[in-house]
Write a structure and sequence with these properties.
The protein has one domain. The longest helix has about 55 residues. It is of the alpha+beta class and about 210 residues long. A hairpin with a 6-residue loop joins strand 1 and strand 2.
Length: about 210
């Protein structure tokens, strides 16, 4: 009888130990996947922004309202630029590589995410879509802004800085963001920062 109790006790201890190790392994794997998801989504956002920002064009005809800082976009003599960001540095607008298209990336504070929007330039705004927002990856599909981050991830910080926005320099955009997982709150946030330079020079004063 005693031997049976000892065997049962030892077996129970082994089972408890095995279950504890299994539970720990599952938790670690879950946290690893969650963190990898944050890194993957940050890379996805940067890939999209890098491609579009590098190929941005100077808004010579003020179709997207992109002018030098501290100038009135309604002034016909305003000097054109490549990028425009608001005072809080939470977004950026520019003339896309696609003809007749303005693009915008912005941080949406209520939903703590990053949005991408596209709209027609003023020179083609009288077309079938007017100046409606549309999906840049599906021509002529009217839509809201595209959400670039999944619902389970919170963007705690998103800011942009533009340098070299003069007629004699090639402008650069520095992107900074911090991502935090909404479910796996114990995970350390992911910090991302990169600088992108435009391939289209900003030399003309027009």
């Amino acid at each position: 009888m005693i031997e049976i109790l000892v065997v049962i006790g030892l077996t129970s201890m082994l089972l408890i130990g095995a279950m504890s190790m299994l539970s720990s392994a599952i938790r670690v794997q879950s946290e690893t996947l969650a963190r990898q998801s944050m890194i993957d989504q940050a890379s996805y956002v940067l890939d999209i922004m890098t491609k579009e920002l590098r190929m941005a064009r100077k808004d010579y005809d003020n179709d997207c309202g992109i002018i030098m800082p501290n100038q009135d976009p309604t002034d016909p003599t305003a000097t054109s630029a490549i990028y425009m960001i608001p005072e809080d540095k939470s977004g950026i607008r520019f003339y896309s590589q696609q003809e007749g298209t303005c693009l915008e990336f912005r941080y949406d504070a209520p939903s703590s995410t990053i949005l991408m929007g596209a709209f027609q330039t003023s020179s083609v705004a009288d077309g079938p879509l007017g100046n409606s927002l549309y999906n840049p990856y599906n021509d002529n599909e009217v839509s809201d802004y595209l959400r670039l981050i999944s619902d389970d991830i919170k963007v705690e910080k998103f800011s942009l800085d533009v340098y070299g926005q003069t007629k004699n320099q090639q402008p650069m955009v520095t992107i900074s963001m911090i991502l935090k997982h909404k479910i796996k709150t114990q995970l350390a946030p992911v910090h991302i920062q990169t600088t992108i330079s435009s391939r289209n020079l900003n030399w003309s004063a027009k």
